Amino acid sequence: MGSIISKYWNKFKFGNYLTKLLYINIAVYVLVSLSRLFVFLMHFENQGIYYILNYLMLPANLETLKYQPWTPITYMFTHEEIFHIVFNMLWFYWFGKIFIDYLSSKKLLYTYVIGGLFGALFYILAFNLFPAFQDIVSVSKALGASAAVIAVVVTISFYVPEYRMNVLFIGQVKLKHIALFTIIIDFLSIASENSGGHIAHLGGAFYGICYGLLLRQPRLKFPSFRLPKFKSNKTFFNKNVREMSDEEYNYRKAQLQKEIDRILDKISKQGYESLSKKEKETLFKSSHK
Asked: What is the rounded CA–CA span in Å between residue 165 and residue 152?
């Protein structure tokens, strides 16, 4: 049992941010489920006080939010129903893999968190501004990773819009079509029972569109200058530097992943201290990309 826990802990500790975010979502779901079971078995008179979910969900009411300022973060890692977390995590895993292939693990983390915050902002503003929600704003709460996940989906879809992925029963579909279909469905579903969820999705999508298009722009080039006492030898720095092809990049990335998997297996069998200095450096660099 200890070796299993150690194995998954090492995967979390040394994995990329896609792995870390998946593990955090699953851990919070397990915690919420155990809390619900505990409250059910103990049959408390005021069960809401003891149910941890009530302290993780995002309230639409500004007065309640004032006393729970952490919820714009916690709500995006919180799920109550099994199908909700399974769907979100599958969606996140599929598009997260593509995201990391073209961008980076750190950008995935930023996109997830900021996209989730945009979802929270859209949700809170809509419920406090539109008359349609004035009767339920005091009791409405949001939860789930959907807004954060959609931010990831839309970002990578607008960054590589022509990329194709296989969709069950349909075949190959371009990412831009998947993203546009998702946005349209959410917009048309605002009048449904889950209004808050669809509005939050649109918040995540809005950030994804902005960030995806921004990433496609050429990097700004700042004017270079040279200090009189420190002349650089451009020939030295540019020697043997050439642009890597997609095939070379994917090959090197696959080889690195094989090496990471080998190191993680070694840790689970022999412990972290058994690693060489080079293996530790490889893990460290991989987990901070």
From this structure: 15
Contact between 205 and 183 (Cβ < 8 Å): yes
pLDDT tens, residue by residue, 211-223: 999 998 866 444 4
Domains, the chain, in order of start with CATH, read 15-216 (1.20.1540.10), 241-287 (no CATH)
DSSP tag of 56:
T
Q: In terms of DSSP H, where are the helices of 43-134? A: 47-50, 62-67, 71-74, 82-102, 105-129
- Percent helix, strand and coil across the chain, each to the nearest 5: 70, 5, 25
Torsion of CA 206, 212, 218, 222, to 10 degrees: 60
Residue 182 Cα to chain centre, angstroms: 17
**Can you say whether residue 79 is alpha, beta or left, with left for phi > 0 and alpha for psi between -120 and 50 degrees?**
beta
Instruction: Please state, in angstroms and rounded to a whole number, the distance separating the CA atoms of residues 148 and 268.
Output: 32
Percent of the chain exceeding pLDDT 70 equals 82
Q: What is the CA radius of gyration of the chain?
A: 23
Structure tokens at 270: 């022999």
Residue type, 66: K
Grouping H, G, I as helix, E, B as strand and the rest as coil, residue 242 is coil
Does the pLDDT at position 156 exceed 50? Answer: yes
**What does the DSSP 8-state code read for residue 75?**
G
Give 228's strand partners.
Answer: none
